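Q&A log
Question type: sequence-to-structure
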Amino acid sequence: MNRVTLALALVTATAGLAACSAPSQTAIKPLAQQEVSAPDAVKVPAGNTLSASYQGDGVQIYQCSNAAWTLLEPAASITDHGKPVALHYKGPIWVSTKDGSEVDATAVPGASVKHGDAIPELLLKATANRGKGQFADVTYVQRLATKGGLAPAGKCTDGGEVSVPYSATYTFWIKG
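Response status: OK
Response body:
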């Protein structure tokens, strides 16, 4: 089992346990009633419509190179009110666990909001869509409300790896 598969398995198992042990105290709102608040720097361009908003929980995996930590990849479980709907990994890529559809994306230059205690909020533009299903027509992805995930401070030993827990809200947008 490779490192990414193992990390995703651990993330998925952890998310499943959390969902089982902590029932939601709020009523589930239909997507059209959910509000998505985003800083101006990461707003989606006009002409796109919110398709889905999900919770992401996982790790940011860092590798030590030249005595500094650099991001190797994310590994996260994406859930809808505690139910797994997707996995997120290096690319960045999101793949549906419901229908196998995928979206690859790349960060929009200058479209980020940095936080001192968490990874930045981002706007990402879709670069490829595969399959039919929930991610087939995604045009943009936002990473919002980030918590944790920052690289460790200080020097490190080359070749070392560390996984840092994080969470974020991921919103998926389609043309229209």
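Response note: The helical segments are 3-21.
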